[in-house]
Amino acid sequence: MVSPPTGTSINYELHIPAAALLKSDLLSLILHWARRTGTMNYFLMFSKSHGEATLSRFQKLRLENRMCDVILEAQGKKFPAHRTLLACSSDYFWSMFQEHNLESGTCTVTLPALSSPGLEQVLDFIYTSWISLSPFTLEDTLEAACYLQVTQAVDLCTEYILDHVSLENCCFFANVSARYGLMEALAAANRFVARNMARFLGINGNITELLELNFESLQEILGMEEMPGVKETTLLQFALDWLSYNPLPALESNSLLSRVRFSLVPPKELIRLSALKPALKTPFIHSLVQKALHYHVQGPLQPLLQTVHTNLRATTNRILLVGGGAEADRPQTQIQSYDHCSRKFYPLSITMPTKLQYQGVCVVGNFLYVLGGEMVEVDVENEKTAVMTVSDQVWRYDPRFESWEEVEPLLQKRAQFSCCVVGGVIYAIGGRGQRGEPALTSVERYDMRAGCWRSGVSLPHPVHGQACATIGRGVYISGGIHGSQTQSSKEVLFLNTLDRVAWERRSAMSIARFGHQMATIKDRIYAFLGLYEPFCDIERYDPEQDQWTRLKPLQHDRFCYGLTVTGGGRVLMFGGRKWQDGQEVCTPDVLEYDPEYDSWKKVCKLPGPLCGTQCAVMTIPDPVEP
């Protein structure tokens, strides 16, 4: 190095790759240069090709068997190598070749625990930084890499598993990952098995691979939420088959079966299996089975008894579009589910018990309740003729068994009424009876513990077509048509369900509305468009200030739509009717309202035009993707 002329001052800049700063040998080099230059400011150059060239030379020497000073032996096959490179690449050899060890000077190192293909794979990696992996070489490679503590090779095996897991190899990858402690790869393989369990347990599935799955993986899988398309009965039967194939002590068997959600198994099947399978007769598992059987006989009380053992194995809530049809007064029985993340619609495999419109819809304990409404019967011979009959029926849908059950009917027949849930209690408010009959002032509450409807605090006047929203334990209703009047109302009423004394008036809306909807977002109530409104304004209510604020209007009129709030606090509006060229038309558009920016946008389309639907948010079984 040429020293700078006397009397001159030179500043050296330091430019070091970020990864290199973690190397202790480079830090030593930095300090060495600092001492020589007398300053900490200098320019340090880095060559990416030097390491590759050095390894390439080492590989050439190994292939030519030159300068090799040690021979590694596995299964009778010998591999010449260089001690220095082995020690720098493997913690095992670093420790072995220390001067104080007896093996430090040995010419041949025998490795009886390793296979020759595995040792060859790891040596190729040490000399080239490349490793050839496939399901046929993976286990031998991992065995050698873990034994010799070549961590970079182990990391590449993990990366290979993460990138190549598939139906054909996921069980094998899970077993290998568990055997060699590859926790990230194990978690990924377990998740993949769970997501594809329906394919394994299906008619054309390969259950043999599942039966060979390791205990830890199966235990984790049985505790997972995401298992689309798998009935709990099928899962229980598989767990019992696995235990027959892999006998375990009672403690481990209990630990495995405790992950099964017995409350999701039909009681008849649960009783049948309990009588046949010894694994279900241990005191601990027997107690879980009895709890599940007790849950099944609770009837109306079930929604209040939800635990992890009664929850469906599903990861996200879905929006159900209940009722409605492609034209007014022609509702269909099909129920659509909507996944807001993928923006996809899936029809439910089960339909509504009857064709309804103007019904009430709510969810308690992940049970869907459909209340009252108008039953529509279309004349088979003359499709233009339909008979509308207001109903007092209440139907409950259980997504666990995909079944409908008729429960205790309403005290009065109701349509175009308000329906909400507060503290696990369903409220049916106002509405009307048969067409032409006066509106109702009555309110009723569904007491699930008693399994019956009871009268609530009556309204100060009859009303139907009003909207409803809740905040905490309070119920708000707005608008509608009062009694025999023909004009829509701006009035807002509030009921505190804790004291249940009387309905109180709050500040009126700025717009009279009928057939509209309200939604609660962050303790604020939003009122949306109603039937035949001259404007498209929406407004927001602040309960603390008892004040309404006009917001940006929707660009086009819309009524008879479905409405709900997403988990992210945005409003979705499904379908509905609007005016077009002087006629009412049904639309398939799905609109999203962002309250933070007071803005609307179209996010997707329904499978077809839809109006008059009601929305409910609940967990349903995840569909199996094709």
Detail the topology: elements first, then pairings.
Elements (H helix, E strand, L loop, with lengths): L23 H14 L10 H16 L6 E5 L2 E5 L1 H7 L1 H6 L11 E3 L5 H13 L9 H11 L2 H14 L5 H10 L3 H13 L1 H5 L5 H5 L3 H8 L9 H14 L4 H8 L9 H10 L6 H14 L21 E5 L13 E4 L4 E4 L8 E2 L2 E5 L2 E5 L2 E5 L7 E5 L3 E5 L4 E5 L10 E5 L2 E5 L13 E5 L4 E4 L7 E2 L2 E5 L2 E5 L2 E2 L9 E5 L7 E3 L11 E4 L2 E4 L11 E4 L4 E4 L11 E4 L5 E4 L2 E4 L2 E4 L2 E6 L4 E7 L8 E5 L8
Parallel strand pairs: 1-3
Antiparallel strand pairs: 1-2, 4-5, 4-34, 5-6, 7-10, 8-9, 9-12, 10-11, 12-13, 14-15, 15-16, 16-17, 18-21, 19-20, 20-22, 22-23, 24-25, 25-26, 26-27, 28-29, 29-32, 30-31, 32-33
Helix pairs in contact: 2-5, 5-6, 6-7, 7-9, 8-9, 9-12, 15-16
**Helical element count?**
16
Name the CATH superfamily assignment of the domain at 318-618.
Kelch-type beta propeller
Return the CATH topology of the domain at 318-618.
Answer: Neuraminidase
CATH uppermost class of the domain at 318-618: Mainly Beta
Average of pLDDT? 88
Content of β-strand: 15-25%
The count of strands amounts to: 34
Structure description:
By secondary structure, this protein is of the alpha+beta class. Among the domains are: 1-46, no CATH class; 318-618, Kelch-type beta propeller (Neuraminidase), CATH 2.120.10. The strands form ten sheets. It has a four-stranded antiparallel beta sheet with strand order 6-5-4-34, with no helix packed on it. A four-stranded antiparallel beta sheet has the order 8-9-12-13, with no helix packed on it. A hairpin with a 2-residue loop joins strand 24 and strand 25 (524-527). Helix 2 (48-63) packs across helix 5 (116-128), helix 6 (138-148) runs antiparallel to helix 7 (151-164) and helix 15 packs antiparallel against helix 16 (283-296). The model is unreliable at 1-23 (pLDDT under 50).
